[in-house]
């Protein structure tokens, strides 16, 4: 028997009778216990084994969130299969690429994604449909015995493809040991207990959505499912199911607490989560006034890091505007120069991380793996600075940094200044071709009530070095998104000098 915890151990191994009877999943008129989850996972273990899936083989899942999704994952963890998480929002060509690149042996598809699977050629492979007939068949399968030989903790478990913003997408591989370590990081960062209730709405094909749900399960908490089409629907679910963890993507947490229903429907919440370093001190104070009993946890992380890497609190972000917090206990962090030498406190450099949850490799890409993990550190590609107390501040993505007239401009710094303007709801800063400076700083601004460009320019000049001010402006109703993040690749592709406003030159 291999030593160390496996992913399935977090919900099955050595489970007490009390845990097996606890509710793991619930909806408005149904529930599923931990004992039933364990049995379903063992049924999937047997099903996969009988389908010829062996340790290290890839299976893919193209499905919406639900209990069955997690049963598949725990069953795959038991038999040592690797699950390729397919993004249901992708085009068919991208899904086809990921199936072929990963060498997938079997595909699991739910009815809502049948058309996408067919267009991607998924049904040329052995497939399991998550429909009513499958559920009946699964119940007839005898669960695999609990004493079945265990895979190795270092063996691969999840293969999740990056967005491919630079070149072809990469299959990021996370081991069972990494996933267990990531769960423990989230338990620590969110202070999870068996009393917690979480809405399983964050897409399970993203490390954050899946990782949060599985971490709640690892401590005996509950995941609830239901339709969420609006903030009103979310608040209704929170109240009906006594949800304790309010998770809102990106900057949506501020809009959520401003909603009229928060005053009556937020009573069960103990914590709100959002993107670390995203909100101003004034917004944090407002959230504290509107939902005073719920704390705030800001999150920074990545797929390659295995999920959360740092967490911040409301007090952190009020006292240190722009901070993404300090590294979680499972990480060591450093900020380094281009030669991988640590920089002094307060200086800019690339954040590198070391921890048990870090990825094993990019599938089939040894050179990219070696570059990203050089020196035994995960090179995040994020430009940050660290203060003397160990708090980190996001400056930019290395690839997004604007070099204008020989000066480096970090987009996050400019975005933080613009968001403080009372007329600005949201913004994103990118670099665009500029005849005078080679590359110019451009701000794409969402200002529903309208705003004068001269007002924004004066605002920036009062708060930034002149060379950092945006030379270009563009106004949009909303910013394009790639998951929870603004899609800056799309913004750069959208740049049209004829539609944008170029400010006149002035002394730098």
User: Structural class of the helix and strand makeup?
Assistant: alpha/beta
List the uncertain runs.
none
Which word captures the global form? globular
Largest sheet: 9 strands, mixed
By DSSP, the count of extended strands is 28
How far apart, in Å, are the first and last alpha carbons? Answer: 67 Å
Average residue-wise pLDDT: 92
Q: Total number of helical segments?
A: 17
Portion of residues within helices: 25-40%
The order of strands across the largest sheet is: 11-12-13-14-15-20-19-17-16
C-alpha-based Rg, rounded = 24 Å
Q: Could you tell me the strand content as a percent range?
A: 25-35%
Short description:
The protein has 508 residues and is an alpha/beta fold. Helices cover 31% and strands 26% of the residues. It has a nine-stranded mixed beta sheet with strand order 11-12-13-14-15-20-19-17-16.
Describe the structure.
It is globular and about 75 Å long. The chain has a 9-stranded mixed beta sheet with strand order 11-12-13-14-15-20-19-17-16. Strands 6-5-3-4-7-8-18 form a 7-stranded mixed beta sheet, sandwiched between helices. It has a 4-stranded mixed beta sheet with strand order 2-1-10-9. Helix 2 (34-50) packs across helix 3. A hairpin with a 2-residue loop joins strand 21 and strand 22 (407-409). Helix content is 31%, strand content 26%. The longest helix is centred in the first third of the chain and has 17 residues, at 34-50. By secondary structure, it is α/β, with parallel strands linked by helices.
